[in-house]
Hints:
The protein has helices spanning 3-8, 11-21, 31-83. The chain has 84 residues and is mainly alpha-helical. It has one domain. The longest helix is centred in the last third of the chain and has 53 residues, at 31-83.
Amino acid sequence: xxxxxxxxxxxxxxxxxxxxxxxxxxxxxxxxxxxxxxxxxxxxxxxxxxxxxxxxxxxxxxxxxxxxxxxxxxxxxxxxxxxx
Length: 84
């Protein structure tokens, strides 16, 4: 079994191959479960990267809103103190 074959198999095919071959292999040597784990890890990594980007975007928006709020407050205080 080579890596290209493993990558081309569906999850269902990997599970069937695991069930078929498990009787012939030691429990610690299981390429099918390793491939399923690799796929799940890749999915989680991709999702975490997307979440990180969302958090970064939200942080930038909140920072801009905070700066705008501080500037408006300072202008309001200046207007009240010096404008009257």
